[in-house]
Amino acid sequence: MDTTLLLLIIGIFAGFFIQTVIGFGGALIALPFLLIVMPLSEAVSYISIFYLISSPIYVYKEWDQIDKNLLKKIAFSSFFGVLAGILVLVYGKPLILKQALGVFIILFVLNSFRVKKNVVILKKTKHILGFLGGFFSGLFSTGGPLYVIILQNETTDVKTFRATMFGTLALVTLMRIPVLIAGGVMSMTQVYNSFYVLPFFILALFLGKKVYLKLNEALIKRVVIALLFVSGVMLVFKV
């Protein structure tokens, strides 16, 4: 087994295990592993392939818990964000934006310790965050933390939050895949290599679900905050 395939397996397994447990974070965990052995555009393509596989599974299982109205509200701004993000991915040099996202995530985590209650997000701010979530989803597949901010202010319990995160990331993935193909970023070679990773990916989904069922709401929230902080640091320094 070569190094590229090994790190691809480790990254996808770790990322989607966390994704299944808390509702987001797959790309945040997988991306640092993948960037060791491949360019950013190729890493985004691999992550998008596995999001495409996992999204129908997540949405089917969590459909009743998803806040559909909230999903509709952020869909429009997210779509234009995804388009803008992939354009930068294909034609630009986005590493400085990767660091900026990391700084934003760290500041959000620090603020969560200072503020006891969720900050009220205005309607226009929600659209801006939706656009930025789509933008970073197109650029790095890591828009989840921005959607976390919206959903934490709009959902009432961890089950609705987690399910709606699945729905949001599924929606963004459906937007992202056609644009990646049209932009020449995704190739059949990546699809072929993904078959080698598929058994480990399925194992990650299975184990993640088992772990989720044994965790309480307070612990899941602490895991979310810890994951956000670690991923923010990794985005700032792992360039």
From TrEMBL:
Q: Which residues cross the membrane?
A: 7-37, 73-90, 96-115, 127-151, 163-183, 195-213, 219-237
Q: Which residues form the signal peptide?
A: none
Q: Name one Pfam family in it.
A: TauE
Q: Would I find Transmembrane helix among this entry's keywords? A: yes
Q: How does it sit in the membrane?
A: Multi-pass membrane protein
Q: Which UniProt keywords apply?
A: Cell membrane, Membrane, Transmembrane, Transmembrane helix, Transport
Where it sits in the cell: the answer is:
Cell membrane
Q: Name one GO cellular component term.
A: plasma membrane
Which PANTHER family does this UniProt record tie to the protein? MEMBRANE TRANSPORTER PROTEIN (PTHR30269:SF37), TRANSMEMBRANE PROTEIN YFCA (PTHR30269)
Record family assignment: Belongs to the 4-toluene sulfonate uptake permease (TSUP) (TC 2.A.102) family.
**Protein name in UniProt:** Probable membrane transporter protein
Q: Which organism is it from?
A: Flavobacterium omnivorum
